[in-house]
């Protein structure tokens, strides 16, 4: 199987379409998404439509949950909360029902998909260091768990020859044949936060036993205009140019 895995899209249609065009040339069998399909950006309905059309295996992110009233937004920053309210008001009942029905985990051949962690996906905890990843690595019974949530790509892993030690890599091509288990954070399609204003995605080939993290330029200005035109906070447009 050859998978393309999409990180937090956050209703950024220009970034998503740039990624989907690139994926077409990759001979992918199935597209997966680690959730946060909506929130922050101004094209939630169009992005959900793409997910449906392409039969993407999506899990529910914290912004997706917040938009359907399943998560208290008290602890969201004011910009995120404004975007949740805007998204809820702009989506029709069919799209809201689609978000509500998203599962917290997707189990596929050779991998599993979660938003924050594998062990308690409903808590939306962050994996930001090797210690955070250990419980999920302990529970993992397939080679890879794909996650998002931090919007920063990184691979946290245990090597086959030293399966008790957890380490990490930020390399863009990972040979999985020497790795026993890995948590792969695929970064973010629609709101990168590693100070690089590029979209991106991951590829996973279960036969070649390789993972690639890809980054691509996209037309940021176009998406920033859409955010401003929608009346969303201008900061949500500005941050796309900085990758923060
Ligand atoms: Zn997110």
Task: Summarize this structure as a short list of keywords or feature phrases.
244 residues; alpha/beta; 12 strands; 32% helix; globular; binds zinc ion
Walk me through what this model shows.
- By secondary structure, this protein is an alpha/beta fold.
- The protein is 32% helix and 23% strand.
- The chain has helices spanning 13-24, 44-53, 62-67, 78-90, 93-100, 130-139, 220-229, 234-242; strands at residues 2-6, 30-33, 57-58, 106-108, 111-113, 144-147, 154-159, 166-169, 173-175, 179-185, 199-205, 210-216.
- The strands form two sheets. The chain has a six-stranded mixed beta sheet with strand order 3-2-1-11-12-9.
- Strand 1 (2-6), helix 1 (13-24) and strand 2 form a beta-alpha-beta unit.
- Helix 7 (220-229) runs antiparallel to helix 8.
- The model has no long low-confidence stretch (mean pLDDT 97).
- Zinc ion is lined by residues 8, 10, 36, 61, 63, 149, 151.
How are the SSEs placed, and which strands pair?
Blueprint: E1 2-6, H1 13-24, E2 30-33, H2 44-53, E3 57-58, H3 62-67, H4 78-90, H5 93-100, E4 106-108, E5 111-113, H6 130-139, E6 144-147, E7 154-159, E8 166-169, E9 173-175, E10 179-185, E11 199-205, E12 210-216, H7 220-229, H8 234-242
Parallel strand pairs: 1-2, 2-3, 5-6, 6-10
Antiparallel strand pairs: 1-11, 4-5, 7-8, 7-10, 9-12, 11-12
Helix pairs in contact: 7-8
The protein binds zinc ion.
């Amino acid at each position: 199987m050859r998978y393309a895995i999409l990180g937090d899209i956050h209703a950024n249609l220009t970034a998503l379409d740039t990624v989907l065009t690139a994926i077409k040339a990759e001979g992918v069998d199935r597209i997966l998404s680690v959730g946060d399909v909506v929130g922050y950006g101004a094209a939630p309905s169009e992005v959900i439509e793409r997910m449906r059309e392409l039969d993407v295996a999506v899990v529910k992110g914290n912004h997706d949950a917040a938009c359907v009233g399943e998560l208290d937004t008290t602890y969201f920053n004011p910009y995120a909360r404004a975007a949740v309210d805007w998204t809820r008001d702009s989506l029709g009942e069919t799209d809201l029902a689609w978000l509500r029905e998203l599962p917290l985990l997707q189990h596929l051949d050779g991998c599993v998909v979660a938003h924050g962690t594998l062990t308690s996906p409903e808590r939306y905890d962050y994996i930001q260091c090797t210690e955070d990843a250990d419980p999920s690595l302990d529970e993992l019974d397939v080679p890879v768990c794909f996650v998002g949530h931090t919007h920063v790509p990184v691979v946290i892993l245990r090597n086959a020859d030293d399966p008790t030690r957890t380490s990490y890599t930020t390399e863009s091509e990972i040979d999985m044949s020497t790795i026993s288990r890995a948590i792969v954070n695929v970064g973010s399609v629609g709101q990168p936060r590693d100070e690089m204003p590029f979209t991106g995605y991951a590829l996973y080939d279960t036969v070649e036993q390789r993972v690639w993290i890809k980054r691509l330029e996209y037309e940021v200005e176009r998406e920033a205009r859409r955010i401003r035109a929608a009346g969303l906070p201008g900061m949500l447009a500005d941050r796309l140019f900085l990758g923060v």
